[in-house]
Model the fold of this input.
Amino acid sequence: MRGGPSVLGIVLAGGEGKRLMPLTADRAKPAVTFGGTYRLVDFVLSNLVNGDILRNCVLTQYKSHSLDRHVTTTWRMSSLLGNYVTPVPAQQRLGPRWYLGSADAILQSLNLVHDEQPDYIVVFGADHVYRMDPRQMLKQHIESGAGVTVAGIRVARSEASAFGVITPGSDGLTVERFLEKPSDPPGLPDDPERVYASMGNYIFTTKVLIDALQQDAEDEDSVHDMGGSILPMLTERGVAQVYDFDTNHVPGETGRDHGYWRDVGTLDSYYDAHMDLISDEPAFDLSNRSWPIYTHSPQLPPAKFTASGIASESIVSPGCVIRGQVTNSVLSPGVVVEDGAVVQGSVLHHNVRIGRGAVVRGAILDKNVNVPPGATIGVNPERDSELYVVSANGIVALGKGQRVG
Done:
């Protein structure tokens, strides 16, 4: 941050994303396409860059080729000013082993910290959909003198088992307890049916983080995870505070999408987040020009609609050709929907082709899937479950280039 404290951004992007299979069969979770033209990693990087955190390292590991290529080709900063976004693959700097967890990933990458010598380190996850101004969280962290500040969002207690849960102290800021995915956590004092869920976004005072990582590395019983190891350790020391995400405001936000944050770790949550994009007043508005989400857009012609082509309540990306009918769907670049085909409530990735007279409902089709003329997906649940991955909520998912039975 120019004229302010020195800040280094570290983005944790090594996740395998097993619950998003088959979309992660050939790529890291942060590289999964979202919203037609974006990758999941674009959301965190856009937040950091829009928030003047301009020196960022993206730690990668699992099937990282497409992620590395996307970050390298898309996120080019001004080298004249010393700004950068760089992918950092696992390097086995501490021996012949890969990352044991997110904390170990940073431990093995401390050379980046020693080179930059920042006052503060922003550690954000790479696979959530949201807008956030990190400067506001950093301001609270600096003014409070905390060793670590963790961003928290209020969620229903019934959802708590999917998150790290923060129990604030009587001052509303100090973290009294940090519980990793508890089954029955205590509710908030002012709202017993809700809890503070960790968003996976942390800001550390540099020395505090380095000391904690080194201590954690010596613990043979540790899982070496930021939420499972480092946050509980610093909570016990009394140096952890919570930042209420609801107090964060970004330029151009609407009353509808203020405070929007989605963990898209499952097929159902990934699908639901897409459905949040497509209404006339979307729950998350991609068109906010005051806080843009940046990405790389391929050089393709504008979308084309023939006389029979119709698309409503949908996102249609460049290079698409619509000859059939599309409703309540998100189409990535290069999708072709042939004459007489019907696409309803679906997410189609790059270069998917829907043949003449085919029907696709409630489906996620990864790139290069070719649906033959007259074929159906999402119409016959029994048949779909025999041939494809079907989510708990009945969403049919096909992997990259998967053959349609």
Q: What stands out?
A: The chain has two domains: 7-268, 299-398.
